[in-house]
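Hey,
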Amino acid sequence: MSTDIMAVAHIVQGERVCGGEQVYGRFATPKLDLDRLVWPRSAPGPAFNTPLAEIIDVLVQLGAWLAADPQGVVAQALEHAVRAGSLPRPLMAFAYANIGKPFDRRSIEFQVQRELGGADVLDGWREIPDAPSSRPARIRAFPPRLIHIVAGNAPGVSAQTVLRGAITKGVHLLKLPSNDLFTAPAILRGLAAVAPGHPLTRSFSAVYWRGGDAAVEGVLFRPQFFDKIVAWGGEASIRSAIKYLGPGLELVSFDPKTSISLIGREAFKSAESLAAVAERAAFDATLMNQQACASSRFQFVEASVEEADRYCALLQQRMNVDRPTASAIGPAVPPALRDEIDGLRMLAPEVRVWGGYGGEGVVIRSDTPVDFHPDGKIVNVVPVVDLADAVMHANVATQTVGIWPPARKPALRDALASRGVQRIVNLGGTAGVELGLPHDGFMPLHRFVRWINDEG
């Protein structure tokens, strides 16, 4: 294999598989053995009957192993990820340094309690004593068989996928994203290291194939093998999965999303207040260099045009700052977006633009939202008379809304929810969705499992 082509190892039912038979331009993978990527329904999955307490013990050990990295696996994955991906080393290093944090006992127990009501429904049959018919009934959150189409915009997605898959005790096939080929295999190598041959270890595979490959998906995406497809990512990934759905095979979708900010007139009470708000808004706007779904791209500000311009200037300055979650200088603005922005510059003073195209961040002030998708550290600021007027710009594709000041949230949150918004936070608080709370409008663990009745 050419030294310019990166070798990507697969994990198949807990075992590492190496090889370079399948070449995809800049990287190569082992040849797929489709028979080994399924677990026959004639027998329970390896961890179906493993007590959750034992699984949690293993996950806590995994978190410690990922943090300590005794074999250098995480460090090696980081090097490969930086070489193959689009995010700069400091951001990826920060993400990898925290890759073990979700495997925390308190967090796991919180998720199980909040999303499923306790471990009893995973370990066995929960008695339902108060059915209106007076008939005895029992339910179980039965372990699922899942295909996960993993997103590659942040390494934490792979960690959350392994974590939720382990908690639900099912069998899991992870399709690696082309922009993050190394995180999930590194986590699963850690699982094999702390629990070699354990039922949980044997419950996971992580492999790559080109999305939409009918020779692979036409075989695997069938109800005789899997119950659900868990799909992250862009519209193309979701649409590719949808065509295989039918009786016995359903979709759990973490849809592509965008996020916005609503900033009240209180921000302008002093220069210090405005600077603090600009800092919070810049953090939200540049999360993972604006690659995260929670990154704010449109900001609606209760302000006059003159006040909004002061805010825009401060916001652009604070976008041009190094943070653990963002680069002072990100990717250069691509030509298509540059042309759009150049066109807007000609509309001054009705429209104003701050910043340049070298990755330092761009802020556009306009009286209505721009008709293109701001990306790569670009923010559109829109002055409004009242924050209630901005609610109309939220829709079902709006994931997170950051609001300032927090006291304004109660008056806005029901209207935002009615428009389709799934998450409302204080401005500056978009990072780090709390595991155990709803994600994209649903409880993931609740959706992952198969709910079974035993009625008397």
